[in-house]
Write a structure and sequence with these properties.
The chain contains twelve helices and 16 strands. It is α/β, with parallel strands linked by helices. The strands form three sheets. A nine-stranded mixed sheet has the order 11-10-9-8-12-6-13-16-15, sandwiched between helices. The protein has a five-stranded mixed sheet with strand order 2-1-3-4-5. Strands 7-14 form a two-stranded antiparallel ribbon. Helix 4 (104-111) links the parallel strand 4 and strand 5 (115-118). The radius of gyration is 22 Å and the shape is globular.
Length: 359
Amino acid sequence: MRGALTLARRGLGRVAPNPAVGCVIARDGKVLGRGWTQPGGRPHAETEALARAGAAAEGATAYVTLEPCSHHGKTPPCDKALIAAGIARCVIALEDPDPRVAGQGIAHLKAAGVAVELGLCRAEAEAVNAGYLLQRREGRPLVALKLATTLDGRIATAAGESKWITGEAARARAHLLRARHDAVLVGAGTALADDPRLDVRLPGLEAVRPLRVVLDGSLRLPPSHDLVAQAGSRPSCLVTGADLAEARLAPYRDAGLRILQVGRDPRGRLDLPEALRALGGLGLTRILVEGGGRLAAGLLKTGLVDELYWFRAAKVIGGDGRPAVGELGLQKLAAAPGFARLGLETLGGDVLETFRRSA
């Protein structure tokens, strides 16, 4: 099953709105076929593994990280494919909350005489598909906040200089993060200050193109900006206020931007929970947020940061530098957002700490 989970991770950032699933078919200690959800969400993992196993799949065990689908979509149901191949036993890590499945895949397998075991490596499977599960259950994608700071949590000098705080190895790792998410999100301030490309620039992964998303409630981003001007050739999205007239939006729409309009909070800023639900409505399951400080603070205050990737350079800028996170307005430590550390990596002279939001 852990092998299947490793295969499933290959699909992260490439299969939305489908889940990233892995499947291993084995018998007598020998792997007969392996598969994972392919780019675009199909073929599914089970279909891929069965094709590799061929006739040897009869009487074997299938280890699958998520309940096999039981409905006809653009591909036939995987539960029927497993049954037709003669699989004798199916070990499933996790039920699929999609109402089109939701236990039916398991029921169909059992009715056909396949022995089913459920729950092996459940927690690991939930972590791999945390974004898919959130999108199905709450209508929003998983939010991963990426910070690249000095030791004292600064992202730029007082004059605004920020390139480069971290080194080449850390920047390459950040590009890998982009490749594993469906979209990369920034606020208008970051877009204007840094002119980010929000693409993946790693050998072999150039074809991976996460959706570029800008939150801009007052249309500060000019139509000449790269994130607007290149929208026709690189998938891009603008999230802005529902109160803005169509005449103001027309230049952005004409440039090829997908536009989502959402309400505002009592302070007049974009309603972040509504914005995330709107992005979830596009089928996005995993979003990487790359700034700025006010956006990071807003997401943290509303409890919407699920994962945190903190790249830290061995430098100190000082209190006059620009902070990675804006004001949270906390009066008590007990109200501070809490995270559990999952890992620590050394990247040249920098470090990356990975956190998950505490329950």
